[in-house]
């Protein structure tokens, strides 16, 4: 039987007095979070050898997909792929509860591309909360759909309209985008969704957090009534459930989450007195050679920009990423970070969403997150691929 080396989190709920097993923490902006909740000793995730039921060769997908999967070096399906792909190929609606890094993109991209090849009248819309995630999805779809002969369009904010309008005129079979820009095109009449009969909503929880509920509802309402839907979310709460219940048809739920995503991250606080001490402490931390690849979170676009410049002036290899930067600038910063041209990325929460960089050693919360849920999302950037990560949160004495 094929096996895929995959780490699962210890499913045993932690039961400590600090309530660290709680990932909710309220939605209000600027919740008070007891600093003790920023401290935890990492528990290595149990490395469990997941035994996949299927091989990619077992799936009845088009030969071109088999060839592209092989070319990408995908041999054995990850758990989410192993469970999702067979049901999706039967045409079922899917609810997938999974994080970035689990292979969820291919879990929907394989059945979607297969459907597009098999049915020349099908069209797919994939919606993601951020431009970065939309681009990562596009890369995966491009490589998996190579040679299939259909065109696509990526509709993201911050990018110029010209190329998007050109791609839309070419009658794309697969459209990937963020809710705002997709709606923009719907309103201009350059994107007509009535013929789109496959929808993927990725990171639904983040989309709702970012206030896209009305846009997403309108997008879903505009699509073909007979359709197949995929909803992926890292968390399942009342809002996500309500949205899915409204739009899914007899869905299959596949969850590969168990336990607390931050269990393999060492968490500690850094106390500081004033601004100068805060900067000095950050400086010292960043000089530590163990801090080899780090995201530093700060609150606002302006504070991120300023901190990035300050660190640059101190001689660090650093770039900044926030919503006030152009798409090109954000992409260059992300590429530079991925390829180790810079090893420090200063970011706002929104800009960092969906970033899949495997070898981040440290997450530093230079300013405290607005909610405990944001905290969990932030520190989840470290400790990917079964490695122990580190999170340091600055707390004013
Ligand atoms: P995702 O969760 O979709 O962002 O995927 C995380 C990473 O895993 C990406 O870099 C994928 O290229 C990779 N990946 C996805 N599925 C497989 C697989 N079956 N075998 C090996 N690598 C994979």
Task: Describe, in short, the structure shown.
With 397 residues, the chain is α/β, with parallel strands linked by helices. The protein contains 14 helices and 15 strands.
Write a structural description:
The chain is of the alpha/beta class and 397 residues long. It folds into 2 domains: 11-46 and 260-396, P-loop containing nucleotide triphosphate hydrolases (Rossmann fold), CATH 3.40.50.300; 56-255, Rossmann fold (3-Layer(aba) Sandwich), CATH 3.40.50.300. The chain has helices spanning 63-71, 79-89, 104-118, 131-144, 161-169, 179-188, 204-209, 213-222, 238-247, 275-287, 301-313, 327-338, 349-352, 372-379, and strands at residues 3-7, 47-51, 94-97, 124-127, 152-155, 174-177, 198-201, 228-233, 252-255, 265-272, 294-297, 318-321, 344-347, 362-365, 389-396. The chain starts with a strand and ends with a strand. Residues 1-28 have low confidence and may be disordered. Bound molecules: adenosine monophosphate. Residues 74, 77-78, 81, 100-106, 356 line the site of adenosine monophosphate (AMP). The site of adenosine monophosphate (AMP) has 12 residues, from α3.
CATH superfamily of the largest domain: P-loop containing nucleotide triphosphate hydrolases
Strand content: 15-25%
N-to-C order of helices and strands: EEHHEHEHEHEHEHHEHEEHEHEHEHEHE
Uncertain spans, ≥5 residues at pLDDT below 50?
1-28
Number of helices: 14
Strand order of the largest sheet: 5-6-4-7-8-3-9
Q: Give the domain tally.
A: 2
Largest sheet: 7 strands, parallel
Q: Specify the CATH class of the largest domain.
A: Alpha Beta
